[in-house]
Design brief:
about 300 residues; mainly alpha
């Protein structure tokens, strides 16, 4: 009896030991081939619902081998962390700057660091806050290759949300066609307010559609005429029951794309021929902005 009890105790001790080892090991019930501590691989401040623990857990699940190899390579963790921080700190321009961040921190010169970062990006990009979104292939070219690249890299999630709604898709394509060289100038002006996007829970149509009526906000900045026209023209092209969230209304989905591009400074990459009649820095008042946009058309 005593021998059997000792055997059971030994089994319990071994089981506990394996459980502790697995906490920082490749996450399977097999014996670990290497330790896996991803806590030193990421830098920068994750935002929203993301956290260091979210990123760590994913790396443990999907990149354990690469994380373990990196831990044994001199300077590897510091390199991966620096690249990650560089991309995260670039915020909306993270996708545009990712390759430069990798070059600046000589990622490719360390095979272990390159493999660890690529696994983080490919397998845990969303959990670790990296810009891994891919734009819907149905999205039209936004005026020029450089302009489109800025929209696609900085506002991917906004574009995809818009293209899931036909009325929003028509609105964006209208803006691309209607604004012409005034698109870049209007983005550079930075006069479009993001307030409607953050209002939430409004009172019916007013919350979702006041963005397309200049007179709705007489004391605040609003979209230039070419943008307002498109927001209004297609706001009812998604018939049926209205969405339960104002943010999902076509006009606001399209406005979210425009505001994102404005904050990402895409105006620098888009046509902004000021000789077309626009002004890169018009007065923020409704009348002045409408006049400048109208002249550009």
């Amino acid at each position: 009896m005593r021998g059997a009890a000792r055997s059971r105790s030994s089994v319990i001790v071994v089981a506990i030991g394996l459980a502790v080892a697995a906490a920082f090991s490749c996450k399977t019930f097999n014996l670990p081939s290497d330790t896996c501590d991803p806590t030193q691989l990421h830098g920068g401040m994750l935002s929203g619902d993301l956290s260091d623990s979210t990123c760590n857990r994913c790396l443990e699940d999907h990149c354990c081998e690469q994380v373990g190899n990196c831990g044994h390579a001199n300077g590897c963790q510091e390199t991966v962390s620096a690249v990650h921080a560089c991309v995260i700190d670039a915020k909306l321009m993270g996708a545009q700057r990712e390759d430069r961040c990798a070059r600046d921190h000589m990622l490719e010169q360390s095979p272990a660091a390159d493999q660890a970062y690529r696994c983080m990006r490919d397998s845990c990009g969303n959990e670790c806050g990296l810009p891994v979104c891919k734009v819907d292939p149905a999205a039209v070219l936004i005026q020029t290759p450089s302009c489109d690249a800025c929209f696609s890299s900085s506002c991917c999630s906004e574009l995809n949300a818009c293209y899931a709604n036909r009325a929003c898709k028509l609105t964006i394509e209208c803006i691309v066609n209607e604004c012409g060289p005034q698109l870049g100038a209007s983005l550079l002006a930075g006069t479009v307010s993001s307030a409607p996007l953050n209002a939430g829970g409004g009172d019916g149509d007013a919350a979702g559609f006041d963005v397309c009526a200049p007179e709705a906000a007489p004391n605040g900045p609003h979209a230039p005429a070419c943008v307002s026209k498109c927001l209004c023209d297609y706001k009812f092209n998604d018939p049926g029951l209205a969405p339960d969230s104002d943010a999902q209304r076509p006009a606001l989905l399209a406005l979210a794309v425009y505001v994102c591009a404005q904050e990402a400074e895409c105006g620098k990459e888009c046509p902004h021929d000021l000789d077309a009649g626009g002004d890169a820095a018009p007065d923020a008042s409704p009348d002045a902005t409408s006049d400048a946009a109208a002249d550009a058309r």
